[in-house]
C-alpha cells in the first residue's frame, strides 16, 4: 500500500526503526518488531542503519517482514550518496520483488571516513531517477530549522520545492523540540506552493547521551524548558525517560490540535517508549 494515500482520510501516525549493526545479533530487530505488534501505527519506515551504514539484515528484508507479519505498509530508506546508479537499480528491483512500494529518498550523511558515490549529489537527483525506474511512492525529508548545508531558509525551501517537483509525494520532517519552528516552516511551504502532506518528526529523548548525539548530528535548537528538564533529571534514568516521553506527548498533542498532517515517531528501536506515546495519543488520531 502506498503511504501517501493514507493522508486523504486521517491524521497519520507512523514509526521509524533501524536495522541491527553488523556486530549485533539479527534477533534484536525481530525482538523490536515483535514488541511493536499491536501498536498499529499507520506505517513503519526502516533506515539503512546509523550514518547510512549497512547492516547484517537488509532494509528490504525488514520492510517485507513488516508488511507480511504486521500487515502494515513499510517504507525503505534510500540515501543517494551511498549508491551508484547500478546499485540503486538493483535495490529497486529487490524492493519490487518484495512488494515494498514506498521509498524515503534522502541525500544521506556525508561521512568523513567514507567517500560518497558520485552518481547522485542531492536527494532530488535520486527522486527523479527512481521516478524513471518504476511506480514507487517517493517520500522526502524536510528541515523545520533549515538544512545545515543550506545558505538560508529561502534556499532550503527552494531546494525542497525542487525535490517535490521532481516527484516526491509526501514529506517527513527532521526532529525538533520547539513546535514553533514547524509551524513557521509550514507557512513557508504554503507560500512556496509545496502542497504534499508533511509529517512532523518527533523524537522522545530518554537519556542525556542521546540528545547530545542528536544535537551534534542534526543541529536542532533545545528550548529552555527542555534543557531544564534534562538538567533536573539527568542522573535519574527512570525520571528522564518518563519526562522525555511526556515532552514528546505534549508536542504531539499540540501538533495534532494545530492541524499537522501527521506524526512520525523516531522510536530508536525502543518499543516501551513507543507504546507509552501511542497509548497516550491514540485517540487523537481516531477523532
Automatic annotation (TrEMBL):
GO CC terms, sorted: cytosol
SUPFAM superfamilies in the cross-refs: FAD-linked oxidoreductase (SSF51730)
Annotated GO MF terms: FAD binding; methylenetetrahydrofolate reductase (NADH) activity
Top-rank EC class of the record's enzyme: oxidoreductase
EC number: 1.5.1.54
Coiled coil: none
NCBIfam families, per the entry: fadh2
The protein's name in its UniProt record: Methylenetetrahydrofolate reductase
